[in-house]
Structure formats: C-alpha cells, structure tokens
Amino acid sequence: MDWIGHILILLLFILGIMFLLKKGSSWNSSCPNLPPGPRTVPIFGNLLMMDLKRPHKTMIELSKEYGPIFRLKMGFEEMVVLTGYETVKEALVNQADAFAERASVPFFEDFTKGFGIIFSHGENWKVMRRFALSTLRDYGMGKRTIEDKITEECSVLMKTIETYAGKPIDITTIMGAAVSNIIVSILFGKRYDYEDATFLRLLKLFSENIQLSRTLDILIFNMFPKLALLLGSRKKRLNNRKELHTFLQDAFIEHLNDLDENDQRSFIDSFLVRHREEKKRTTEGYFHFENFRSVVSNLFAAGTETTSNTLRWAILLMMKFPEIQKKVQEEIAKEIGIRQPRTEDRLKMPYTDAVIHEVQRFADIVPSNLPHATTMDITFKGFFIPKGMQIVPLLSSVLHDESQWEKPYEFYPEHFLDAEGKFVKRDAFMPFSAGQILCTCVIVSSNKQPFFGKKSSQKIMEHLKSNNNNNKTLIEWSSFNKV
C-alpha cells in the first residue's frame, strides 16, 4: 500500500502548488478586460521563453503578437509590459499619477529595506527625493558651479590620458573615476585621485553590484524569494553592501564630528543638519543613518554608471563611424578651438548636440527601465490593470519605435536634425524614462556633458585604436557586438 501514500503526497504537492499560484495572482479572473499574454507554465510562468541575457528583446517580440500592452508572469510575479512610444507616453506622462509607484521587487527590497530614493515608496520616497533635488541644486547641479567642476575634471582626465603616450589604455576605470568625481565632489565635498585605492574600491563595489543584479541568481530570487540562502550572487552583493556601508558609516561620523551648521560644504553636511534638527523633535523622522547610506549610494551609483557608460559608448561609436567623428571635430574646432567648452556653446553646435543625443538613443542603456507599479485600479486603453501591479515601460521599444525614428536600428545623428541642420527635440527620446519617477540618473547626470576638444579627442582615438584588437581596451560590456 506504499504506492497509495506516494500518490497522496504527490496530490498534496500539486494542491500546494495550485494554492500558491492562486495566492500569488493579482488578477481577478472574472474580469473580461485583462491584457492578453502568452500561456504560462506552472511555477515558472513565462520564464522558459525569455532571453535571460536580454529579456527586453523577448518582450519586443511578444509585443508583435500580443500588442503594445500585454502581461507576463515570472514565477509567481505578474507584470504588465508597455511597449511603443504612444503607450509608454500615455502611461508615464498623461496618466502619471496612476503609474507613479515604484514596484516592490523582492531583491531590491531585501537590499535597500525600503530606504533611499530609487526603490523606496510613499512618504519616504517623497521626502528623500525632495531633499536630494533641492540639495543638489544648492551645490550647483544645473548651474555654472557644476559646469566649472566638469571642466576641471575634464582637464585632469585629458592629462591622465596623455600620460599613456600612445600606449594601450583601458578607458573603463579612468572614465568611471572622472565621471564619479563630479557627484563625489557634491556628496563628500572633495574629489579623489584616479589611483586612490579607496576610490577604486568604491567604484568596483558599485560596478560589481550592478553586474550581479543582472544575473540568473537574482532573477530566481525575485521569482522565489524563499530560495535566497541558496543564491551566491545575493550573498556576494550583500557582502559588498556591508563593505560599502562601513565606508559610509565612517564618512558619516567624520562629517558629523567636523560639522559646522553655518558652513555646510557637502551633501552629507546638509543631511546631517536635517538629522540634528529631527533629533530635537520627539517624532520619528526620515533623516536617519539607514536613509543616509541608501540615498548616498543611490546618487553615487546613478551619478557614475549611466553617464560613464554613455561616454564609453560615444568613444566606441566615434571609432566605428569616423566620418561622423570628423564632422563633430570640425564643428568643435570651428566653435570652440582649443579652449574648454561651456554650456552656451551648445546652441552653436547642433551636429555635436545631435550626436550626443543619438549616442544615448542608440546605446539604449536602460532598455527595460526600472519597474513601476500602479497606484490604483485602472482601465488603461481598454484593459483592466489592478492596483499594485508591476509595470515594465519598455524604453527600448520607444527608442526603436519605427513610427518615431527614420532609421531606428542604425546610428543616425540626423534623427535630431531638421532639413536645415538645426537641432530638433524628439518626444520619443526617453533614454532614462519619463514622468514622476524619472530615473534618478537624470537628476545627477546632465546632458551638458563636456565635449572633447579636437586635439584631446584625436588623442583618445589614437590611444584606443593602437590596440583595437583587444576588446578589453575598448570596454567590457555585453552590448559590444551591437555595433
């Protein structure tokens, strides 16, 4: 009779799985207006059909079959994918309030505990975002002050590159350090040398954590959080976080000891002033150490990764398309010469401006966006979407929308030029999202990035071309073959 016991155990297992599947569902099966989507497999959902390295590619293909709004299920986690310019704009801009929440992703909730800006929610998000924006402006973001810092850092970067004297160079580290120094100067009130061991370690920790967040381990964790203890990537990322938090704790204490409320010199100083003000009140506030380390981490990462990645793409694309590089250099030589560029030069340099925008469009740095969530039950373009549903506004589909771009899959600066060669803005230019929870990198990464002068630009290209058979010399990132 042992076989009867095995059958009963199997039946109980199946019933348990069915219960979990039903429990994890956010959809009301009686609703007739659900978005369409591919059939799911028990436990795995639609995971088995996804390109795990480039899931946005699979989503774009699915949109051709199911339309611009469709649903997916990854394990027990359900989501709605929005594709194409018109659909994404309608959600994030025209109906921004309904799509204004940040989705609760298990791994990021586990990592940030709901603090900071990028993955926080509700009032904490509002308070920290408001403080970050106002304080960044106080320390020069979007003003002449930050432009001066960028110009100074650009000079250091050029001198560093010149020291290689034509030898092969891995641009990744020094470019990341140069870009990071801009936000670091605001956060900590100082800059670091490119060879500073502490600085290099910080850059490595952030870069490594970003790479780890894209691994299969983390995807599995998001689908089945109870498997957390079995996943190596999560453990490595948490160890990195612990090391980072130790550094930030030391910085917190150092700035607290030296704090002069009448002479605030950095973002940290401003945070600490608010921290002291809250301690004088009896009610619990938001300016505590947990939010401090999360906000600083958010701004450090957002102010480094996307901008440095974009600039490395720019260097690669100029190598790939020397005829475009030549036009940029000619415009720089004509309008700027050998001096450092300024913001006002941008109006006189439409082609260079167009190239910078096209680099961001073509590079497609954040293809799947950071996940949003609905703040209410909503009927969107005829489909019912419940409150709290995870929303994936697929930016890659916007940046490659054939109805918006003449040559969506080619590097074509003319996308941003009119018939007379003047720069034109494009509404479908959404490299970092749109709406109320616009990607944090937009807060700290200005489009007014420094142009390379003709002489310095040629030196960079010569150094890189001197070893162009070594992919590491160019850059190590997964989208290299896209060019």
UniProtKB/TrEMBL annotation:
Its cofactor is heme. GO terms for cellular component: cytoplasm. One of its GO terms (molecular function) is iron ion binding. GO terms for biological process: aflatoxin metabolic process; organic acid metabolic process; xenobiotic metabolic process. Heme binds at C439. Belongs to the cytochrome P450 family. This is Cytochrome P450 2K1-like isoform X1. It comes from Thamnophis sirtalis.
